[in-house]
C-alpha cells in the first residue's frame, strides 16, 4: 500500500482547491463500481477539467510514485476502480464537452467524461447516432478503456471498431494523440487499439474520436418467445451464419423477463425470448424480418410481438438496459455479480447448456442474458456481499463457466474487462502472450503507477 | 551493415540444407517488392515450413544480432523488403496450408504464406469468401503485417477488422498466439492489432485467423461515367454520407481507364469513372442500386453500364486489380511508384484537386485511382528508375501530396504501409506518439533485429 506523501497532498490541494478532496464518502464512492467488489478507496479524488490538468496530476503523482486511477461514471463491473495500492482517483466526469461533430464524415470528438446517453441526445437532431451501448450510462472514456460493446455490436462492432483516435496522458505526463480521422491507415503501430481495452493501466484517455452512423431510415423491433433456450439460441446462430445484418439480437431467460417485468412495469411472457431490432431501408428491413421470422418458426418460435412505435421500442430497450438493476433489486441488500464470457457461435449452445447446469446447482439467484449474435452472454447473480459462503459459491460457478468458455475457444470476458475480477484467467486464455503484455506495461509505465493491480498481476 | 557471421551461415546451412540459399538472383529477388525501390538484397534466404522453424531461425539470428526480414509474395510497394542492414530473409511462401475453415463460425486459420486468391479459390465451394483484396495476389501474412485493405474495405473493413488471431514468432524466438476466435473480447491488451500493421518490426506472423463472409445472395456490378472528377467524387461522398452499404466504390481517372483497356483488352469509355459493386439479398441490392443511381444522376453521371454475368464481373475487377501493372507496362523499362493517402471523406475533393494540380506540372506519367468510399486514393507514376531527375520529381510531388493529406486530417498511407518510403512522414502525422512507438519497438525487439530501418528510423 502506497502512503500518500504529504507534499503531494499539499501540491494537489494548492493547485486544485475544492476540486481536490479527501472526504471519506467521496473516496469510498470512487473506490468501487456497480458490482459486488468491495470498495478499496483511493487516498484522494481530483476532479480534472482539461487534458493538461490530467497531465499535471499524473506528473505530480509520478514524481512521488503514487498510483493514479481514472474514474468516469463508476459503472465498472470487474473492480477496475479499486485502489488496491491507494493513490489518486482522477475523476473525469466534468470533462463532458462534445468538442466536434462532423455529419459529413460521420465522426465526432468528445471529452472522456461524456456519457453515451448525453452524446446520443446531442446527436439526435442531426440524424446521427453512436451505437455502442453497454447497459449502464457509462462515459465514452471508460467505454474505450474497457473495450465495451453492448446490444448493437452484432451489427456495428465494439469500441475496438468504433474509436478512430484518442488523446492520452502517458504515465510520465506526456500528452499524445493516437490514430487520426481517416477511416483507415497503415501508418505505424496501432496505438489506438493498444489503449482501447487497456483499463487505465497504460495511460489516461482524455478525448475520444468516434465513428458515427446515420439514424436508419427504418427501425423495427420485435420479441419472439421460444419453447426452450436451445431453440432460441439455435435461431440466433442461424441468423449469424446466414449473415442477416440484424442490428440487435438479445437473449433473455425467463428469470430475467420476470425481473424486467417487475422493474420496468412490463408484462412480457416469462419464457426464453429473443429480442430483435432491424435497421435499414424499408425494403432491406422487410427482407431481414422475413428471413428471421422463417428461421424462428423453424425453431419453434412464436409469433413476433412488435414494438411498433418509437416509444414502445425505447421502453423495450430501456428495460433491457436496466436488466442488471432489475435483477439486483429483486433481492434485498443484494449486490450484482455480473460475469460475461464470449465463445465462437458454434460453441454457444454447449457453453450455455453447461452454464445452466451450473446454475441449477447454485443457491444464489441468477439469470442468463446475452448478446448472442456475438456469442456473448452474461450471468447476473444477486449475491449477498456479506455472506462469504455465497461469494465463494458464485466464485466457484464463475470459474467453471469461464474455464469452459476458454476451453471452447472463447474468452473470459467479452465486454466487461479483466479488472481485478478476472486476473486469474488471463493466462489460461492467452498463455505466454501475457508475458508480452507485461513487457509492454513495463515499457510504458515503468513505475507501475497506472491503475496497479488491474488486468496484470501486481509484481 | 551487419556482416553475416560464418558460424550463422554454417548453422543455417546445416539445419536447412537446400532450403538455405545465398545465390545472387534469389537474394536480389528477396530484397525488393514491386515498386521503384531499388533492391537491397539480404545476405541469405531461408525457406521456412513451420512456425517452429521460423522460431529456430530467429533464435539463431538473435544470438548473432543479425537482422531478420519476413518475405511472403514480394508485393510490397514501400520498400518493406529492403535488407538495409543485410541479414536473413525468411521466405514463408511454402507455409501455404489452409489449416481450418469453419463455415459455422465464419472464420478460418491459414499459414502466413497462403495467398488471398488461393484462399478464395478454396472457399468458393463452401459458399464463403474473404473480402480483403489489395491489387496484388499477396500473402495473408504480408497483408496482416501491412494492415492491407483494397476495394471491399468500404463495406467489410480492412485487415485491422478482419484478423481475429495471430501466431507470432517474437524477436527472441518465443512463439505466442494473440487474440482468439471469439468475435469480441475485453481480455487484455489487443496484441493482435499491435502486430497487424507492424511490418515485421516486432515479430514474424506465421499463422492468421480470419473472419469470413457468406457469398452474397445477390451481386451486381456497374460502371458509371462522369463528366468530371469532381462529380464522380461528389457522388462517392454522398453515397458514404447516406450510409448506403455498397460493397465496392472505385474511382478511375481517364488515364487509368486507357491503361486498363490496353492491358486487359477492354473498351471502357476513357473518362472519370466510378465502379460499383452491390452485395445483399435481392431486395436490399435493388434498394441500394436505386439510391446510388439517383445520386449519380444528381451529379451528372451517365447511365450505369452493368457487368451482369459473373464472368463480366470477374473481368472488370481483375482489370481493376491489375491497374498497377497496366500503368507500368505502358512505358518501357518503367517501374511503378504507387503512393497512397487517405483523408476524411469531407476533405477528399480538396485533396484530389490538389493532387491533380501537382500532376499537371509533373513530367512523369501518372494516374489517380482509389477506394474513394474510404477517402483513400493512389497515384501511380510510371517512373524511369535510372533517371534520377524523374525520381526526384516524383519524390517532390509525393511529398506535397502527403503533407496536404496530413494537413487535412488524413494519413500518409491508407494501406501500403510506411516501409522505407514514408518514414519521413510518420512524425508529421503522429507527432510525439512516434516516441511511444519507438518505446514499444525497443521493449519487444531490444536488439533491433526485426526488419530494421522500416517504419521507424534506424537508431
TrEMBL record, chains A, B:
User: This chain belongs to which protein, by name?
Assistant: D-lactate dehydrogenase (cytochrome)
Domain of life of the source: Bacteria
| Similarity comment: family membership | Belongs to the FAD-binding oxidoreductase/transferase type 4 family.
| Species | Xaviernesmea oryzae
Keyword Zinc applies: no
Cross-referenced PROSITE patterns, in alphabetical order?
FAD_PCMH (PS51387)
GO BP, sorted A to Z: lactate catabolic process
The UniProt keywords, alphabetically, are: FAD, Flavoprotein, Oxidoreductase, Transit peptide
Q: What top-level class of enzyme does the UniProt entry assign?
A: oxidoreductase
EC numbers on record: 1.1.2.4
Cofactor(s) recorded for this entry are: FAD
Show the GO MF annotations.
D-lactate dehydrogenase (cytochrome) activity; D-lactate dehydrogenase (NAD+) activity; FAD binding
What SUPFAM superfamilies would the database entry show? Answer: FAD-binding/transporter-associated domain-like, FAD-linked oxidases, C-terminal domain
- What InterPro entries does UniProt report for this protein, alphabetically? FAD-bd_oxidored_4_C, FAD-bd_PCMH, FAD-bd_PCMH-like_sf, FAD-bd_PCMH_sub2, FAD-linked_Oxase-like_C, Oxid_FAD_bind_N, Vanillyl_alc_oxidase_C-sub2
Q: Which residues form the FAD-binding PCMH-type domain?
A: 38-215
Keyword GTP-binding among record annotations: no
Q: Which Gene3D superfamilies match?
A: 3.30.465.10, 3.30.70.2740, Vanillyl-alcohol Oxidase, Chain A, domain 4
Amino acid at each position: 500500500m502506497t502512503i500518500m506523501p504529504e507534499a503531494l497532498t499539499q501540491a494537489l490541494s494548492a493547485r486544485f482547491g475544492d476540486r481536490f478532496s479527501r472526504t471519506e464518502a467521496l473516496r469510498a464512492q470512487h473506490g468501487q463500481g456497480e458490482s459486488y467488489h468491495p470498495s478499496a478507496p483511493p487516498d484522494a479524488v481530483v476532479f480534472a477539467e482539461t487534458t493538461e490538468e490530467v497531465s499535471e496530476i499524473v506528473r505530480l503523482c509520478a514524481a512521488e510514485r503514487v498510483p493514479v486511477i481514472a474514474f468516469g461514471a463508476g459503472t465498472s463491473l470487474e473492480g477496475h476502480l479499486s485502489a488496491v495500492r491507494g493513490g489518486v482517483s482522477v475523476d473525469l466526469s466534468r470533462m463532458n464537452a462534445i468538442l466536434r461533430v462532423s455529419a459529413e464524415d460521420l465522426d465526432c470528438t468528445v471529452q472522456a467524461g461524456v456519457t453515451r446517453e448525453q452524446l446520443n441526445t446531442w446527436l439526435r437532431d442531426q440524424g446521427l447516432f453512436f451505437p455502442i451501448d453497454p447497459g449502464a450510462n457509462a462515459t465514452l472514456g471508460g467505454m474505450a478503456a474497457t473495450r465495451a460493446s453492448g446490444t448493437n455490436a452484432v451489427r456495428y462492432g465494439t469500441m475496438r471498431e468504433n474509436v478512430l483516435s484518442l488523446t492520452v496522458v502517458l504515465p510520465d505526463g506526456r500528452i499524445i494523440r493516437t490514430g487520426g480521422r481517416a477511416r483507415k491507415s497503415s501508418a505505424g503501430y496501432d496505438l489506438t487499439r493498444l489503449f482501447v481495452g487497456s483499463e487505465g493501466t497504460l495511460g489516461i484517455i482524455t478525448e475520444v474520436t468516434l465513428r458515427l452512423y446515420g439514424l436508419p431510415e427504418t427501425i423495427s423491433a420485435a420479441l419472439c418467445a421460444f419453447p426452450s433456450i436451445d431453440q432460441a439460441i439455435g435461431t440466433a446462430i442461424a441468423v449469424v451464419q446466414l449473415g442477416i445484418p440484424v442490428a440487435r439480437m438479445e437473449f433473455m431467460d425467463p428469470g430475467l423477463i420476470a425481473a424486467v417485468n417487475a422493474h420496468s412495469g412490463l408484462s412480457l411472457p416469462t419464457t426464453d425470448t429473443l429480442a430483435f431490432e432491424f435497421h435499414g431501408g424499408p425494403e432491406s428491413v422487410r427482407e431481414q424480418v422475413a428471413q428471421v421470422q422463417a428461421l424462428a418458426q423453424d425453431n419453434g418460435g412464436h409469433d413476433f410481438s412488435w414494438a411498433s412505435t418509437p416509444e414502445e421500442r425505447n421502453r423495450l430497450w430501456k428495460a433491457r438496459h436496466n436488466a442488471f438493476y432489475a435483477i439486483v433489486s429483486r433481492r434485498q441488500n443484494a449486490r450484482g455479480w455480473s460475469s460475461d464470457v464470449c465463445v465462437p457461435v458454434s460453441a454457444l449452445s454447449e457453453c450455455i447448456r453447461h452454464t445452466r447446469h451450473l446454475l441449477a446447482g447454485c443457491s444464489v439467484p441468477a439469470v442468463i442474458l446475452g448478446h448472442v449474435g456475438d456469442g456473448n452472454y452474461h450471468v447476473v447473480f444477486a449475491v449477498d456481499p456479506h455472506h462469504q459462503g455465497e461469494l465463494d459459491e458464485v466464485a466457484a460457478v464463475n470459474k467453471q463457466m469461464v474455464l469452459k468458455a476458454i476451453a471452447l475457444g472463447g474468452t473470459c470476458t467479452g465486454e466487461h474487462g479483466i479488472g481485478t475480477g478476472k486476473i486469474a484467467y488471463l493466462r489460461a486464455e492467452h498463455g505466454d502472450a501475457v508475458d508480452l503484455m507485461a513487457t509492454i506495461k513495463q515499457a510504458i509505465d515503468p513505475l507501475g503507477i497506472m491503475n496497479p493491480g488491474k488486468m496484470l498481476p501486481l509484481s
